[in-house]
Design goal:
mainly alpha
Amino acid sequence: MTAERYDRGLAAPKAVLGEEYVECNVAQADEFNQEFQALVTEYCWGGAWANEALTHRERSMINLGMIAALNRMEEFEIHFRGAITNGLTKPELE
């Protein structure tokens, strides 16, 4: 794990999903899922979301499509709000 990528990975979801949401997830990590939480933070957020190849707006569109296609509705609401934070408009999301 690189500290720089992990730090970027911690900052990215705070900007998209909100600091309170992220801090709650980090605080809830336990012995069973702590390593997984660190992996998601470093690679998914720090490696993918912090990569500037796509804008956060573009990533949100792709992410919502994948979540819907995989029928992961428990994740849809938070990422829908994140998409609005990233610049998508409600008409674009309808």
